[in-house]
């Protein structure tokens, strides 16, 4: 049997969807022929992939190659479906929501969340509106929708009418960190945030919350990882830092390497993840895996993934976020308890298990 995979997001390994596909491929042991199709213009972005993945990649020429949404639409709408038909695929897996419509071939699609339909701010122009309209059609016509959390399954049911009980849950997991000889990033105490800067990530409320405890903890710093740039989806974070006179206490550290990410998380007093909406929430598992207390939202996927292993806060309340940080900073027994529970909770998420669950859906004979 020949499984064809849309490998578009292998060129974007720092994204959640890119990591999902990458880790599944690294952990799979599927007894079938795997063909990963990727647009030719993304070749350079995939040259550092593990050789076990590269050997299955086939690069496909595309006349439009500006690496923008229009190129993605042409790839998904025309090139990818044409190739899987021409090359006689038995099964197709789209590991991200896609506008590909592939009749007469068993097509599995992973829908991670329904952000476009919950947050209209994420649809800024006619190109994105068109893409979202085409997504609606393809998601309702695909052979099998799968997703990454029970929360997302319920959201997909609410938006598309696909019964949540008919949507298999194949979760992400945490990377297997190598923490040998990882030295502290700083000698001072700090709170750490990672996970993006766009509006649903709720970074302004985190900064406001930090301002409420700043005077009590003069040696404490808040580090915020993520690329900051001007966009209608990204708040003016430097202005917010200035508003609360926190220029010396809140640090935007931009994009950091995986190694530095491990260091920042491992030695933080707490990892705070006050998101308003997620399909899953990988930073929660990263905190668990590195033995760092996790403070996260008491709603949606964060509540599901964190369970009893986190300090749960109301993400809409700066006072609640501040209280969560104070509880972790002041209570050693609480810290020890949630770190222990986090390590236990992490065992429920495993890439090998996820790859095996996906194999079952391929109906391999």
Largest sheet: 6 strands, parallel
Could you tell me the mean pLDDT? Answer: 93
| Beta-strand share of residues | 5-15%
- Structure class: alpha/beta
Low-confidence stretches: none
**Number of separate strands:** 12
Given this structure, which CATH class of the largest domain is correct?
A: Alpha Beta
CATH topology of the largest domain: Rossmann fold
Task: Name the overall outline.
Answer: globular
Q: Helical region count?
A: 14
**Could you give the order of strands across the largest sheet?**
3-2-1-4-5-6
Estimate the helix proportion, in percent: 40-55%
Radius of gyration: 21 Å
Element-by-element helix/strand order: EHEHEHEEHHEHEHEHEHEHEHEHHH
Number of domains: 2
Q: How far apart are the first and last residues' alpha carbons, in Å? A: 9 Å
Describe this structure in words.
With 365 residues, the protein is an alpha/beta fold. It has two domains: 184 residues, Glycogen Phosphorylase B (Rossmann fold), CATH 3.40.50.2000; 157 residues, Rossmann fold, CATH 3.40.50.2000. Helix content is 40%, strand content 15%. α7 crosses α12 and α10 packs across α13.
């Amino acid at each position: 049997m020949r499984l064809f995979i849309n490998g578009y997001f292998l060129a974007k390994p720092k994204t959640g969807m890119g990591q999902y596909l990458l880790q599944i491929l690294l952990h799979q042991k599927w007894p079938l022929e795997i063909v990963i199709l990727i647009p030719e213009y993304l070749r350079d972005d995939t040259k550092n992939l593990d050789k076990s993945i590269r050997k299955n990649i086939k690069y496909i020429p595309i006349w439009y190659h500006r690496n923008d949404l229009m190129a993605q639409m042409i790839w998904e709408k025309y090139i990818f479906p044409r190739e899987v038909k021409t090359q006689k695929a038995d099964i197709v897996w789209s590991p991200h929501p896609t506008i590909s419509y592939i009749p007469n071939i068993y097509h599995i699609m992973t829908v991670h969340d329904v952000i476009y339909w919950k947050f209209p701010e994420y649809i800024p122009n006619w190109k994105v509106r068109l893409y979202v309209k085409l997504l609606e059609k393809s998601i309702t016509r695909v052979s099998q929708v799968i997703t990454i959390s029970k929360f997302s399954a319920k959201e997909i049911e609410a938006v598309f009418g696909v019964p949540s009980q008919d949507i298999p849950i194949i979760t992400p997991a945490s990377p297997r960190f190598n923490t040998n000889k990882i030295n502290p990033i700083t000698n001072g105490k700090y709170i750490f945030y990672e996970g993006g800067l766009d509006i649903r990530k709720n970074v302004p409320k985190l900064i406001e919350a930090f301002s409420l405890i700043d005077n009590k903890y003069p040696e404490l710093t808040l580090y915020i990882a993520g690329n900051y740039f001007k966009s209608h989806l990204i708040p003016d974070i430097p202005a917010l830092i200035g508003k609360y006179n926190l220029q010396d206490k809140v640090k935007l550290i931009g994009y950091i390497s995986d190694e530095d990410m491990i260091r920042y998380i491992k030695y933080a007093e707490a990892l705070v993840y006050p998101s308003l909406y997620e399909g899953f929430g990988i930073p929660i598992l990263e905190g668990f895996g590195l033995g760092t207390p996790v403070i996260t939202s008491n709603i949606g996927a964060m509540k599901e993934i964190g369970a009893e292993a986190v300090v749960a806060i109301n993400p809409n309340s700066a006072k609640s976020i501040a209280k969560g940080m104070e509880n972790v900073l002041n209570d050693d027994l609480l810290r020890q308890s949630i770190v222990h529970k986090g390590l236990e909770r992490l065992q429920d998420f495993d890439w090998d298990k996820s790859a095996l669950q996906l194999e079952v859906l391929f109906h391999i004979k």
